Amino acid sequence: MEVHLAPDLQAKLLRVAAERGRDAETLAKEAIERFVNYDEWFLSEVERGLSQIERGEVLTHEEVGARLEKLLLEKQSSA
Q: pLDDT by residue (tens digit) across 21-57?
């Protein structure tokens, strides 16, 4: 597979690779792998959330507010 980059993006990739003492191809492969893995995880989490909604596992607006307030109070008391 070949990937063609715009000249400015290619220049940035080469610069970052040089700064890190890495070759651009390896850096590009790692970046693509991170993106694909994140995208896969994100879509899985969305599906999980939609399934929870379908099962009625949701919080009311008031419940969300109460949880946030509790978290904020805990943070303030531990600071």
A: 999 999 999 999 999 999 999 999 999 999 999 999 9
Contact (CB, 8 A) for 20 and 27: yes
Place of tokens 């792998």: 33
Q: Using CA atoms, how far apart are residues 45 and 77, in angstroms rounded to an integer?
A: 32
What's the total number of domains in the chain? 1
CB burial of 65-79 (b: ≥16 within 10 Å; e: otherwise) equals eeeeeeeeeeeeeee
Asked if residue 1 is part of any domain, the answer here is: no
The answer to whether residue 2 sits within a structural domain is no
